[in-house]
Design goal:
The chain is mainly α. Helices cover about 70% and strands about 0% of the residues. The protein has 2 domains: about 35 residues; about 40 residues. The protein is built from 4 helices and no strands. The mean pLDDT is about 95. It comes from Salinisphaera shabanensis E1L3A. This is Addiction module component family protein.
């Protein structure tokens, strides 16, 4: 880690547990920025799958069968 990161970490460790938790939450949320293009593509894919299922072009599998594989 850089000296700057080490300093920030040292400072963060002096915070109360609640303050550290809030800091962690803010840092993690900063990593998860939505991508509008990716959201649009997934929405299109979902619509295409729904349409295919409604037209009978897609075979469905019961959830119990899917989750049964992982028990």
């Amino acid at each position: 880690m850089s000296a700057t990161v080490d300093k920030i970490l040292d400072d963060a460790l002096t915070l109360s547990p609640a303050e550290r938790a809030a800091l962690v939450e803010e840092l993690l949320s900063s990593l998860d920025k939505p991508d509008p293009e990716l959201d649009r593509l997934w929405a299109e894919e979902a619509e295409a799958r729904i349409d295919a299922a409604e037209r009978g072009e897609m075979k469905s599998v019961p959830a119990s069968q899917v989750f049964g594989k992982y028990d």
